[in-house]
Design a protein that fits this description.
Number of strands: 9
Oligomer: single chain
Low-confidence stretches: none
CATH superfamily of the largest domain: GAF domain
Helix content: 40-55%
Radius of gyration: 21 Å
CATH class of the largest domain: Alpha Beta
Largest sheet: 6 strands, antiparallel
CATH architecture of the largest domain: 2-Layer Sandwich
Structural class: alpha+beta
Number of helices: 10
CATH topology of the largest domain: Beta-Lactamase
Number of domains: 2
Strand content: 15-25%
Length: 260
Amino acid sequence: MTAEENQVKKYQAPALEKGLDILEILSSHSMGLTQVEIARELNRSVGEIFRMLVVLCERGYLSLDTVTDKYALTTKMFEISHRYPKIKRLTSLAAPVMNELAHKTDQSIHLTIFSDNSILVIGQVDAPGYHGLSVRLGAVLDVWKASSGRVILANSPQSLLDAYIAFNPPGDPTQIDAVTDELGKIKARGYEQCKSYVIKGVVNVSVPLFDYSGNAIACMTIPYIEMLDGQNQMPLRDCRKALLEAARYLSEQMGGNLAN
């Protein structure tokens, strides 16, 4: 064994490596894995990873679904990542863009990501006027009841989309076919514009932000409100155009691949 190999061997930390392996494996399985499945993925015995899973759950990095016996990452990983790389960079870049867009359109805007099988609001800017619809920062939204959820899924890898639909179907087989077809149209169109699934009188316009692989890393949404006195600064179609331009700019700043 060479001196270099001895140095590497000297600083190995098997327990830490197992814990990190578990986190990395689960980061690729949004629906979670059972203890047996994790052991199989890591080519380890169930006994080897049991204590690691217990500790990771106790520290809040994993959650255990007692119905399916599946372990999944919690939003704690998001909270940690938010202090650094992509999410911190994304919110830092998005804040001035969203503020400018809110003043330009006289509408509120929020920024979301896919986290723990839900949609998580990581950025929010209120409309500058007296009236507007705000979504609380940190709010967790149902994927199927949020335009941003549909937009992110429409622009996600096919494997993630198939897995999500399999474990979180939007309805019966007929409804699944309809939603799958609509997601294809959203991807081709480049945005979703539709009446809010939860609030009457609101039209959501949602557009994706892309990462280097051409998949959606986040979604920016304007919950468009039309004032009865006609004081809206900008009509809906122009708001959508401005939102698409802002999303393209942010994607480029994040090194996103827009050729998809």
